[in-house]
Structures are given as structure tokens and as C-alpha cells.
Predict the structure of Catalase.
Amino acid sequence: MTRKTSKTQPTDGGETHQTAQDGHETMTTQVGMPIADGQNSLKVGRRGPHLIEDQIFREKLFHFDHERIPERVVHARGYGAHGTFELTQSLDDVTRAKVLTEVGEKTEVFVRFSTVAGNKGSADLARDVRGFAVKFYTKEGNWDLVGNNIPVFFIQDAIKFPDLIHAAKQEPDRAFPQAQTAHDNFWDFISLMPEAMHMVMWIMSDRTIPRSFRFMEGFGVHTFRLVNDAGKSSFVKFHWKPQQGMQSVLWDEAVKINGADPDFHRRDLWDAIQKGDYPKWDLGVQIFDEDFADSFDFDVLDATKLVPEEQVPVRMVGTLTLDRMVDNFFAETEQVAFQTGNIVPGIEHSNDPLLQGRNFSYLDTQLKRLGSPNFNHIPINAPRCPFAHLQQDGHMAMHKPQGRANYEPNSHGEGPRENPERGFRSYPAEEQGEKLRVRSETFADHYSQARMFYLSQTDTEKDHIADALIFELSKVEAVSIRERMVSHLVNIDIGLAEIVADGLGLNEVPVAAEPARPVIDTDLS
Ligand code: HEM
């Protein structure tokens, strides 16, 4: 057979041996030694053994061997972009946080969208909650609003989070499914956790198969506290409303997209931003005081409940625009460390037991994931306002505290000092009570808001919820788990329970699960 010779010339840059000329930089080792030959390792003779003195080879392989860091224990698959947040309405009546009071101020932000259960290499269109994490680089330090695209959560107390995630991710013996809700462990756990029922209605809805990140809402989920200059406290729920509108795909479309392009959501965000079609979200707040909160028939500290917008309208106060992709995915999107603990003067936590647990978990996991207590020295995590503290040393320390005094107070006249006027002071909430390991009985109604959500859907959306439940539960092998799930649906909507029981081929609709508290009749008419 004769080999065809190509008539085309190699294009510029297509040479095998590419040397530093025509303005190209000289390749060096990490410590700057110029490299003459990057193609061959050092040997004895042409075909002889390799020499361990080959420091160029050793450095290159050493670094390559350590390229991977642990993926996030949840939200491993994500995609980030830079942008700005511009405040359009001042909230100075309720907070002293400058990011929420100075109209026209543009604050730089970094946003990371993610799925929750799948591994780093999983497909984008999984039926899953999406993370919507925003880091605001404010003038008073970084504020991280680490939210999701669904306004409520599965569990009420952070001590259940490891169980939830163990049950949701791949089963430990078989290591599948990698990114799906459709398996026994997930539904076994959920059906034994009535508090998850409101969230179950949302995850079986079209919300968990968004068309792209650009068409999703975002929510802070928890009730947070705002404190104004006079020291007055209010509660707040945060919302992100996409100016693009909300869109989802059908499950059949999601399955096809996952097969054809598992990076569909990443590509969509990349393409939109590269061509200048910048996605925007309006920041909304629901603000209410403690007395008003006490008038609700649910507890605002319970993250399985939302505050109905009919009761507290959402006030739009600013706009987030994403307009720049990262220069390097690993340096920025992988190494970014969002923390619910990152708050600024005027924005505080509430006693929500899920939020309180998160405040521990993020810092702890990031030490493991990023390997050093200095992960805030990485540019994507570093504040963009002046900062000065006396924390020092540790692996990979990059900041150089100046001078001799690395403690305070000191008599050298050196170093940063506290600022009673501008500094963070916790709201002096009055707390008292016995030390108890309990769940408040105000957290006990698990079905009313699940029903409210289901009844608020259009007929088509209700059909999608029923179809999703039938599809997901039909993958569950244990009939007892299927029945237990349907027994919860009976408390939510008997019509839905009948459709799902029929779809699963159950002989009869199981009796209703025992509610922890009588179901409140939610009249939506
Ligand atoms: C990521 C813990 C609940 C939103 C993470 C990570 C952990 C974690 C350990 C990985 C962080 C990292 O490696 O950098 C928890 C715990 C929770 C909880 C213990 C409950 C007790 C929630 C809730 C939300 C949420 C309720 C939404 C409101 C997120 C988001 C990320 C994340 C968006 C990804 C952040 C990123 O893009 O890097 N969570 N989480 N989590 N969590 Fe949670």
C-alpha cells in the first residue's frame, strides 16, 4: 500500500520541536532554570537506564502526580463565572451592610453553580438540586450567600446531613448510581424522614431539570438576620430571580441531552458569556420582624418551610450580572471556597439549626479539600478590600505580616487594631433555656407546605410531578419503600397518591403515614 503524501504545509506552530524564538517565552523549571530539551529524559547512552539525577523529569512527574485534590464532598460538579452586583434600592432601614445600602455601588462577585449528588465528572442534566453560590467581594470583607435553586431543604437539623448525603450518593457496595435520586437507599431514607416531604415535591417538579443555569432561580433558603445602624434586627430571606425567565426541560429531553452532551449546562454558560449575552438575576428580599415571624403557622427557623410571597412580598433591590469566564477552571472554580460563615457587619445568622451546622462544616471541609488553613490566600478566595490580621505561617502562607509585633495589644506601636465603630458586633439576641437534644414542636408540620406547593402547580406541572414519582419509585426494588413513600403522598394530596399507587402497580393506596402534627388545611382558592 502506498502512503499518500500531504500536499499541505504544516501550519504555523505545528512543528514537532518548538523552540523559544519569535517572541515565545523560554520554558523553565518551577524555580526558573531554563530547559533545553523537554522531549527526552536523561539516560545512560541512547537505550540505557534512566538517571535519577534528572531533576527536570522528577520535578515534572512529581507535580503531575499531585495534580488532583479531593473533590467536594457534595456539589462536586460545578461551573463558575465572574460578574458584578449593583445595588438599585437601599436597605439602610434594615441593615448597615454597605453592599446593601450604597445605591449604585458595583460589587465584584464570583458565582458557582453546581449539582449536589453527582461526582465531578457526572452529567449536567441529572434530576438534582442545583447549588447557586455567590461570593460578594464587598468593601467590608467577603460575604458568601451559599444558596440553592430551591427555597427549602430536605432536613431541619445539620446532624442529619451526613445521613442524607450518604443515602443520596452512590451506594457503598456497588458504587452506583452516581448521580440519580432513583435508588433504594435514597428513597428508603427519605420515606423515613417526613420532614423531607416538602422538598420531595420540589425535587420531583421541573425545577430539578433546568434548561440551563441561566434559567434558574436562587434562594438563600435559611432565614438570616439583618441589623441596622441603630442596632435594630429584622429577619430576611434572599431570592435570585433570573431576568432570562425560568425554563426547564422534560425528563426525556434531559436523558437525551445527557447522552449527547453531558457538559450541556457548562457549555451554555460559556457560550452565552463569550458572545456577550450576559445573564442577569435580580436580588430580592423578604423582610419581616420577629413579632411578624411569630404569627406564621410554621417556624421561620425551619429550613423545610418557605415564607409565602403572598404573606411577605419580595422586594427587588439589585442586579447580578455574570460577564466574565474564569481564566483557569482549577485555580478559580475548583479552588473557590464558599462559606456560610463569611458574613459582614449588618448581615447575621439566625438560630436555624441547619444553618448553624453549616457554619462549622464548610470551614472544616475546606481545610481538608484545599489542604491548608491559608486557603483564603488563594486569589479567588482573598478579599478585595484592605485586610490586616495577626494570623501567620502554616502551609503555603502567602501573606507577609509586616514588622515585629505579631500580637496585640503591643507597645511597639505596630499592627492592626480593633475598630469599635466599623467592626462586626453580634446582635445581642436574648437566649436562655435548658441544654437539650430535641426538635422544637414548632417544626412538626411536615405536610402543609408540601401540599401548598403541589396545589400551586398547573395541571401539566402536576402531571410531571406524578410522572417523576412513578419513574423514580419504579427503580426502587423494595415494595415496602414504595408503599411508605405513597403513604406520605396520601397526607399531601390523595389524588396524587392514587395516581402514583396506580402507576407503581400497588394493589391499593396505603394508609396515610402518621403525621407528627395535624395537617393544616391550606386553602389556595
Ligand atoms: C457545598 C455541607 C446544606 C448549598 C457544601 C460542601 C459541604 C456542605 C461540606 C462542600 C464545600 C467545599 O468543599 O468547598 C453542607 C451541610 C449542610 C448543607 C453540612 C446542612 C447541614 C446546604 C444547604 C444549601 C447548601 C441548605 C443551600 C441553601 C451548598 C452549595 C455548595 C455546598 C451551593 C457548593 C458551593 C460551591 O459551589 O463550591 N455543602 N451543606 N448546602 N453547599 Fe452545602
Notes: Residues 1-7 have pLDDT under 50 and may be disordered. The pocket of protoporphyrin IX containing FE is lined by residues 72-75, 78, 112, 114, 131, 133, 146-148, 153, 158, 161, 221, 303, 336-338, 354, 357-358, 361-362, 365-366, 369 (CB under 6 Å). Residues 243 and 281 are 5 Å apart (CA to CA). The beta strands are 78-87, 106-115, 130-138, 141-148, 218-219, 224-227, 233-242, 280-288, 315-325, 347-349.
